[in-house]
TrEMBL record:
Domain TsaA-like: 5-135
Name recorded for this polypeptide: TsaA-like domain-containing protein
PANTHER family xrefs: TRNA (ADENINE(37)-N6)-METHYLTRANSFERASE
Highest taxon of source: Archaea
Sequence similarity: Belongs to the tRNA methyltransferase O family.
Alphabetic keyword roster: S-adenosyl-L-methionine
SUPFAM superfamilies hit by this protein: YaeB-like
Amino acid sequence: MQFYIKPIGVIISPYKSKAECPTQGKFSEETFTIEIFQEFEEGLKDIETCTHLIILYWLDRARRNTLIAIPPQDRREHGVFATRSPHRPNPIGFAVVELIERKGRKLVVKGLDAVDGTPVIDIKPYSSDLDCVENAKIGWFEEGKKE
């Protein structure tokens, strides 16, 4: 089965290369602009009432033939689906960002880890009541913190 995902916008980022990006969006202090394509502008109705958003984006510079990853925090091999590696069969990026302001079709946000020109594939409102899972763990990551 194959399917097509149509980008809804693009990220305007201060980071021009992968090497400049932090490993996770929560470590970024920079502001970003997400420019939504005109045909999707109506979908932004009421988005300014949200304090935080989930941004799904296509990591178009990532390798797609990777099934084993070595995370920088661990240095041991893990299956790519047990890691946050950008290199994976379907390189979808995920970040919870703070919405600073909406300017028409542009959203100014904080908390991304994407390079300039990265395609946006979806936006959803973040809710701490619905999306936060208390006590969630990544076993190998927790083991590494103890060492």
